[in-house]
Amino acid sequence: MHVPDGFIDAPVSVAAGVVAAGAVAVSLRGARRELDERTAPLAGLVAAFIFAVQMLNFPVAAGTSGHLLGGALAAILVGPYTGVLCVSVVLLMQGVLFADGGLTALGVNITDMAVVTTVVAYAIFRTIVKLAPHRRRTVTVASFVAALISVPAAAIAFTAIYALGGTADVSIGKVFTAMVGVHVLIGIGEAAITALTVGAVVAVRPDLVYGARGVTARPLEIRDSPLAPAAPGAVARAEAPAAEPATAESTTAEPTTAEPTMATSRTPEPVAAPRRSARHVWWAGLAAALLCAGVVSFYASASPDGLEKVAHDKGIDQKAEDHAAKDSPLADYGVKDISDARISGGLAGVIGVGATLAVGSGVFIVVRRRRATAESGRV
């Protein structure tokens, strides 16, 4: 759904750019509350993973394909504010390095693919999680539904933007019908990818899934401490209900009042769960991203995606302009001067994953440090 240059006129493109800039600014502030020392590196990985999976176009109808948008996945894994930033970083890398999505249309793409999908998906996700039983399965089901609805929501948003600033004289009703129709099908693929990914992370490390906090947490473990002071009434319970007549054995026995009192004290102590490293999850996610971008992407569908298909059928693409980065050595997801398509595409994908990971991780680490600085200043 990457909008190229020329589809939207200058005034609306500028307005969308202002909206996108405002959303990114708000998200930078909001992400400070979502990121901690473990999730900051993971947020960069989420951006790189979304970049990689977006290369995997899947067929949805005759002559049409679709790909992950990623707003729902990012919002559920790392939070809605951080999710907006993740998708925005992906769109920036795609536009600058790979000539995918117009540079003058970057504001339109961020507003549509980063803001709309993330806001809609997370609102639906939280609604389902609040109403449904608090189980791990609920997180997966909510992820599926949220991702499914977020894609046609983005298609509706594009139609609204096109109605305001479209450069081609086409029927908005036909554009709406075509866009929503094909993106409902694409939403099924988005939902499957999102649910599988979220479900996999929840299964091994639910504490790393932002949307699962408070849903999959285990009950607090209570243990009895043998060294704890006696609880009120414990001594009374330890004493015999009535004194027995003294005998020779009883007069020579050692006093035993202290030990029963200690043994019967049951003061509960909360035991905090040990903090575990997210290193294994990070490496597994990076390996999956590199595999998708470097190998699996070669087998992706070559059919145009939903927006490209609708634009061609309705004549919108007649107004498309050449991309400012068309001469980039990585344009069209291939390395310039490498003739072998597999090697060219795979290497471009690996470079894209690395660049997105570096930029995304840098942004989120800086945001995290600003939060730490602000907290230390308050102290």
Question: How is this structure best described in words?
Answer:
There is one protein chain. With 379 residues, the chain is mainly alpha-helical. Helix content is 63%, strand content 3%. Residues 219-223, 233-240 and 242-273 have low confidence and may be disordered.
Key traits:
two-stranded antiparallel ribbon; mainly alpha; 3% strand; 13 helices; 379 residues
Number of helices: 13
The rounded distance between the terminal residues' Cα atoms is 46 Å
Average pLDDT across residues? Answer: 86
Q: Which overall shape is indicated by the principal axes computed on the Cα atoms?
A: globular
Query: Order of strands across the widest beta sheet?
Result: 1-2
**Sheet with most strands:** 2 strands, antiparallel
Order of helices and strands: HHEEHHHHHEHHHEHHH
Strand percentage: under 5%
- The low-pLDDT segments are 219-223, 233-240, 242-273
Measured as a percent range, the helix fraction is 55-70%
- Helix-strand makeup class: mainly alpha
How many strands in all? Answer: 4
- Cα-atom radius of gyration: 28 Å
Would you spell out the secondary-structure blueprint of this structure?
Blueprint: H1 10-34, H2 39-54, E1 58-61, E2 64-66, H3 71-78, H4 80-98, H5 106-131, H6 136-165, H7 172-204, E3 222-224, H8 234-238, H9 248-252, H10 258-264, E4 268-270, H11 279-294, H12 306-314, H13 341-378
Antiparallel strand pairs: 1-2, 3-4
Helix pairs in contact: 1-4, 1-5, 1-13, 2-3, 2-4, 2-11, 2-13, 3-4, 3-5, 3-6, 3-7, 4-5, 4-13, 5-6, 6-7, 7-12, 11-13
